[in-house]
Amino acid sequence: MRKYKLAMLSFTAVTVLTACSFVSLDPQARDVNVAEDAKSLAGCKSLGNTNVSLWSKADTFQSHTKTEEQLDTLARNQAATMGGNTVVPHPSAEAGQRTYSVYNCPAKGKG
Fold first, then answer.
1. Please, what's the largest Cα pairwise distance for the chain?
2. Burial 33-53 (b: 16+ CB within 10 A, else e)
3. CATH class label, 2-104
4. CB proximity list for 27: less than 8 A, separation 6 or greater
5. pLDDT tens across 26-66, in order?
6. Which end of the chain, N or C, is more open, meaning fewer C-beta atoms within 10 Å of its C-beta?
7. Is 73 helix (H, G, I), strand (E, B) or coil?
């Protein structure tokens, strides 16, 4: 019976960690966009790069998609502090880390 309780406790802990979101979007980053590539950013000013990372084991407890979403959120938060409104992820995320280019793009006309 003790082994059963320990197994259930372990399963519950992993389930809770999987469901958790480790990263939240800062209010000032709500309007920061994630672009697929820099080709569509004509007229935007490059503000440099930012490197973001999750806790080293976070990607062990969640899907690759969830890890990438959280890296995007971290990059959006960082871009807002840099004065940017658009980020472009570099090709691959490895071990819960990714580099993003940060841009400040002109506001689109409201027509």
1. 68
2. ebbeeeeebeebeebeebebe
3. alpha beta
4. none
5. 999 999 999 999 998 999 999 999 999 987 555 556 787 88
6. C
7. helix
